[in-house]
Amino acid sequence: MKTTDYFRAKVGRKIWLLTGVLLWLAGVEISVTAQDKSSTNAAPAKEASTKTDKPDEPEPGEYNNYLSLGLGHFFVDGDVGQFKRKQQRPDGMFGGIEELHYEQMVGKKGLLELDGRSIFDNRDYSLKLGLSHPDIGYARGGYSEFRTWYDGSGGYSVRSNAWLNPYTDELYVRRGRAWFEGGLTLPDWPVLSVRYSYDFREGMKDSTIWGDYNLTLTPTPNSAVVARGIIPTFLDINERRHLVEADVKHTLGITSFDLGLRYGQDNIDNSRNILRRQGEPTRVRAVTQKESVDSDMFNLHGLVEARFNPKVLFTMGGSYTRLDTDIGGSRIYGAGYNSSFSPISPNQQSNDEGFVDLTGGSRVDQYVANLNLMLTPVKDFVIVPSLRIEYQDQAGIALFTETRVTNATNAAVLEDVMNSRLRRFIDVTESLEMRYTGLTNWSLYARGEWLEGQGSLNESQVDLDVGTTALLRQTDSERLVQKYVAGANWYPHRKVNFAGQYYFRSVRNDYEHNIDPTVFTPATTNNLYPAFMRNQEYHTHDVNFRMTWRPQSSMTFVSRYDYQVTSYNMQGGIGPYGVALADIENAEATSHIISQSASWTPLPRLYCQASVTFANQHTYTPAATLTGAAANLVQNGENDYWTGNATVGYALTKRSDIQVQYNCYFADNYSDNSSVSLPYGAGAEQHGVTATLINRLRKNLTWKLQYGYYTGHDRTSGGNNDYRAHLVYSSWQFLF
Q1: Is the pLDDT of residue 1 over 70?
Q2: Residues 656-665: tens digit of each pLDDT
Q3: Which positions ≥6 away from 474 have C-beta within 8 Å?
């Protein structure tokens, strides 16, 4: 039997089996309906009419608890990894407890609450238990876990039709949290609260740093062999966090106090795994870069709020944070992942650079102070001046053994290296916000924010084996950030209103680099990045408008338009001949986003909702105009796309509703640049439609039956990431 025939037969059997189960469950409502009809025919018309017209809905507050159960199956044809990434759902059968809520009064004021969820095969679990009393306090705890799905596919070569999958592309990261908190809320006493949480993240996800592969570019008169980074890479994630929080809040007269502390521990043990030159036995090599970080964080913060009179409110806050970090890791080339380091290996090639025995750490001290004053000098006018000051002191050191291959037949060169870094900066931010509502049907607001910062950075790199200094540099920096926002809301009529806003942001960074002239000569210091940068400047303008229109009570339209343009300017350092480089605009990004939504209820039984968004985004750079050998290496960025969704619902009977939902995504910015590089842009199309039948079998029992169809097409993968999927799902909700 062919693979396709086998797949269809297997899927067919599952569909028939699941359909039979659902039809059997549907028979519950059919039998109920038949009994209602037979009893109606046998009873007098007046009595039957009374029973039929009597509402069968629960009274408000009659049911406080509920349980929802569901069971479904995804039938996927095509790339399962891409389906899971786009839909964030597993393939195959899944189900369990969608939602569980139980509450019970304890005494006259106490409340016991239980909430839960458990979906098998999706590893989606949660449990929360809490006991509270408004005059005593509360105690709550819980656990939650879920998966985030990723697609581990790599790149696709159009000219060579190369598509490589050295490992499964159905990747996921498991995320979870366990927590407990308690508090005392005794009348006229300070409010005390303590919380502990444990978070984790583990699994594998894709990376955009791909391994290289030799391709033969065809058709061409003389077939050329080039290397392209298309082999997929994965990240192995293993992260843990412990966090303890404690807060005290109290009010004395017109003043409120809030004092808190935080202590956290982070443990990160990740690795980046790269496969290079797959399919070439003499060159294939696996790269494992391990990254280990252990950190301790302590934070102490406080807030004081005082209302001197109805027109004056003052707040003041402060925070101190200490972060201590230890690092470790390695970057090793070998025949497989997690290989041991060997100076001589048949898998190494010239220019392979790695490191082993990484140790070191950093220390960060951060001080923050905030002052805010809210004034209402006259009716309908509010002004809020504020001041924020931040100071940071950072120090770090790293020691490692660098491994560098100069010739594939020789042993790797080992060099012990020490890097050190010391950075200090202070930022002062002033802001002023104003709001005015004194004009009839108008609301006006404006805000300005100004940040001035100064800092210094000292960097050094020393080769410990020979005692030579590879880098010794001090950089002084200044930066200025300005933000302005102005907007208005207008309500000319009860059926229509308008809103408009303008936003501007400007960032300028200036650098002055000082390099020890006794160690380096000017000719060797021109390209010590980031010393190459003398200043960077960014300007962003954003304008958006919104209109809400209700031509009738059953119809609403919301329209929105956003326009944004950002320019990037840069001035480099001194050129090879001592000439200062010019200030240039190295990029400009523009964005137009138009969205429209509508809701309409033409009939009491029928409602419709729909929305559509179009984004027109472009990034232009002078590098795209280069000619010669650099032609087409860098292209302008194009990112136009459409998104849309629609929902239609209809009440078939008093007990039954049907709802249909549709969503789509479309992008056509694919640019085949395979002659000189990998193709850029997005070329994708996605559609999803679901139909749901809702039946209220009893006053406290609801049954839903759902069918869904999903499809996705991706041009950048040559169709290898395409998928089609069918969903059959049924759920029951019981109120009690």
Answers
A1: no
A2: 999 999 999 9
A3: 456, 457, 458, 459, 513, 514, 515
Q: Residues of the chain with pLDDT > 90: what percent?
A: 68
Q: Return the SS3 of 254.
A: coil
Burial class (CB in 10 A: 0-12, 13-18, 19+), 87: buried
Going by C-alpha positions, the residue among 306, 402, 313, 399 that lies closest to residue 352 is: 402
Q: What is the pTM of this model?
A: 0.85
Longest Cα pair distance anywhere in the chain, in angstroms?
A: 110
50, amino acid identity: T
In the chain, the amino acid numbered 329 is G
pLDDT for position 162: 86
Is the dihedral angle over the CA atoms 376, 378, 382, 387 positive or is it negative? negative
C-alpha Rg value of the chain to the nearest Å: 32
Q: What is the pLDDT of residues 553-579, one digit of tens each?
A: 999 999 999 999 999 998 876 555 455
Token code pair at residue 152: 């581990």
Cβ-contact 230, 277 below 8 angstroms: no
Contact present, 137 and 186 (Cβ < 8 Å) = yes
- Cβ count within 10 A of residue 522: 11
Q: Give me the residue spans of the domains in the chain.
A: 1-54
Contact indicator for 667, 684 with CB cutoff of 8 Å: yes
d(CA 702, CA 705): 10
